[in-house]
Amino acid sequence: MVPSAVRWACTLHASIRTIPRTQLPSPSRTSLQAVVWVLAAAADYDNRIPPDHTAAVLAREASVGDRVWQKRTAWLRERGWLVHGPGGPSDGWQLSTP
Questions:
Q1: DSSP symbols for 33-47
Q2: Is residue 26 classed as helix, strand or coil in its secondary structure?
Q3: Alpha helices per DSSP H over the chain
Q4: Counting Cβ atoms within 10 Å, is residue 29 exposed (0-12), middle (13-18) or buried (19+)?
Q5: Interior CA angle at 15 toward 11 and 17, to 5°?
Q6: Which of 81, 78, 96, 95 is nearest to 43 (CA)?
Q7: Is residue 3 over pLDDT 70?
Q8: Tens-digit pLDDT profile for residues 7-47
Q9: Surface-to-core class of residue 61, CB atoms within 10 Å of its CB (0-12 exposed, 13-18 middle, 19+ buried)
Q10: Residue 32: helix, strand or coil by DSSP?
Q11: What confidence score (pLDDT) does residue 50 get?
């Protein structure tokens, strides 16, 4: 059985591939894909990333800096792929499909 977080990442990667390279150049595309896989790996079967998984730790796992991490996760949040849990930032992140 494929975990739902992996299905989320595959669906998101398919969506990323449809974005023209003029809008999302190669370095940004590569770092976004790394961030997506780190988020999927950090999520459990409920598509949740606990609040104790700090952004700095996840950024290191994705081999990107904190600023790049913030940009990429902001891009995912703006498009509805990543949301905070019902309790806000203290509730961690939840993977979502717009």
A1: HHHHHHHHHH--TTS
A2: helix
A3: 4-17, 26-42, 55-61, 66-78
A4: middle
A5: 120
A6: 95
A7: no
A8: 999 999 999 999 999 999 999 999 999 999 999 998 877 78
A9: middle
A10: helix
A11: 84
- pTM of the model as a whole: 0.84
Tokens of 56: 């700095």
Instruction: Give the pLDDT score at 2.
Output: 54
The residue with tokens 């770092």 is 31
Residue 6 exposed, middle or buried by CB count within 10 Å (0-12, 13-18, 19+): middle
Residues 6+ apart with CB under 8 A from 85: 48, 91, 92, 93, 94
Asked whether the beta carbons of 27 and 82 are under 8 A apart, the reply is no
Give the pLDDT confidence of 62-95 residue by residue, as tens digits.
Answer: 999 989 999 999 999 999 999 988 888 788 889 9
Closest listed residue to residue 13, CA positions, set 77, 76, 85: 76
